[in-house]
Amino acid sequence: MKCIFMGTPDFAAVCLEKLASSRHEVLAVFSQPDKPVGRKQQILPTVVKACALQHGIPVYQPPTLKDGSALAQINQLQPDIIIVVAYGKILPTEILHAAKYGCVNEHASLLPKYRGAAPIQWAVLNGDRLTGVCIMQMDAGLDTGDILYTVKTDIGPNETSAELFDRLAVLGADALLKTLDLIESGEAVPQKQPQGDGFYASRITKDMAPIDWSRSAAQIHNQIRGLQTWPCAQTTQNGRVLKLHTSRLTPFSGGAPGQVTEQNKHLYVTCGDGKWLEILELQPAGKKKMDAKSFLSGYPVQTDTYFGS
C-alpha cells in the first residue's frame, strides 16, 4: 500500500525502518519540527526524520496541522493509509479521513489501559506483569479507536522501561506490518475497546523522581525500573543527590527505612516494609554511572548511613 508515516522519536523510527524495508511504499514522512537538544542546545533532526532521509523519503515538518497546508500536502500525495506512531500532534478530523483506509495508530499498551503519553513507563511503575501493543483505527478521541491487532508480552520482574521500550518497538513494528496485510486483504476486523476508562498514562515529570523510603521495596524497585532513563529515581545521602539506575528485590530484611547496609561489596537499603532492596547501579551528582562495588569504594557505608538524608 501507499503510506504516509507520521512519527517523531526513536520508538517510531523502529517502525519506519521496518516499513521502509517492506513491500509497502512510504510516500512521505511527517515529523515534529527540529528542536535544540542537549546542553549546547544544538538543533538536530528528529530520529524519524533522520531515518526517512536515509531511505530517501520526503519529510514534512509542519509546525501546525490546523491551517490546512498539511491536509493539502496529504491530498496531493493520495495515500492509501496514514500510519501514526508517537507523532506528538493531534490530527484534525479532515486528516483522519484523508486516506482511503483512514489513519492507524500504534500504541504501546493493552488498550483501554494506559491511554496517554507514557504507557510503557506506567506499566513498569505499577508493577504490571503483562503489556503489549495495540494497532487501532484512529478516531477523534485520545487512543479510543477500534482495535485492529493486538500483541501481548510479559514484563520481566527486573525489566526497566528502557528495555521494555526497545522490545515493544520491535513487536509493534511487526504488528503494524501484519495489520497492513489484513487491511489490504479485507480481513481486518475492528473490535471496540473494552468498556472502562482504564488507567490514564500521563506524562512523566521530574517531580516523580524522589524516592520515599517509607514505601515498600517492590514499589521503590518499580519506581527505579520505570523512571529509567528519565528522570531517574533519585535519593540523597548527606545532601548529595544520587540517581539510582537499577535495583533488585532480595529476601533480606531489617533496619529502619532508608538505612544503608553493605555486605560483601553489595549495597542494600531498607524500605518501608522492612525488606532490603539491592542497588546495582547508581550515580552521584556530577559523576558517571557506576556499579555498587565502585560506589562503595569511593563512598564507604557507616553504621548510621541513610539514604534520603
Automatic annotation (TrEMBL):
<dbReference type="InterPro" id="IPR005793">
    <property type="entry name" value="Formyl_trans_C"/>
</dbReference>
<dbReference type="InterPro" id="IPR001555">
    <property type="entry name" value="GART_AS"/>
</dbReference>
<keyword id="KW-0648">Protein biosynthesis</keyword>
<dbReference type="InterPro" id="IPR002376">
    <property type="entry name" value="Formyl_transf_N"/>
</dbReference>
<protein>
    <recommendedName>
        <fullName>Methionyl-tRNA formyltransferase</fullName>
        <ecNumber>2.1.2.9</ecNumber>
    </recommendedName>
</protein>
<dbReference type="GO" id="GO:0005829">
    <property type="term" value="C:cytosol"/>
</dbReference>
<comment type="similarity">
    <text>Belongs to the Fmt family.</text>
</comment>
<dbReference type="InterPro" id="IPR005794">
    <property type="entry name" value="Fmt"/>
</dbReference>
<comment type="function">
    <text>Attaches a formyl group to the free amino group of methionyl-tRNA(fMet). The formyl group appears to play a dual role in the initiator identity of N-formylmethionyl-tRNA by promoting its recognition by IF2 and preventing the misappropriation of this tRNA by the elongation apparatus.</text>
</comment>
<dbReference type="InterPro" id="IPR011034">
    <property type="entry name" value="Formyl_transferase-like_C_sf"/>
</dbReference>
<keyword id="KW-0808">Transferase</keyword>
<feature type="domain" description="Formyl transferase C-terminal">
    <location>
        <begin position="203"/>
        <end position="299"/>
    </location>
</feature>
<feature type="domain" description="Formyl transferase N-terminal">
    <location>
        <begin position="1"/>
        <end position="179"/>
    </location>
</feature>
<dbReference type="InterPro" id="IPR041711">
    <property type="entry name" value="Met-tRNA-FMT_N"/>
</dbReference>
<dbReference type="InterPro" id="IPR044135">
    <property type="entry name" value="Met-tRNA-FMT_C"/>
</dbReference>
<dbReference type="Pfam" id="PF00551">
    <property type="entry name" value="Formyl_trans_N"/>
</dbReference>
<dbReference type="Pfam" id="PF02911">
    <property type="entry name" value="Formyl_trans_C"/>
</dbReference>
<dbReference type="GO" id="GO:0004479">
    <property type="term" value="F:methionyl-tRNA formyltransferase activity"/>
</dbReference>
<feature type="binding site">
    <location>
        <begin position="109"/>
        <end position="112"/>
    </location>
    <ligand>
        <name>(6S)-5,6,7,8-tetrahydrofolate</name>
    </ligand>
</feature>
<dbReference type="InterPro" id="IPR036477">
    <property type="entry name" value="Formyl_transf_N_sf"/>
</dbReference>
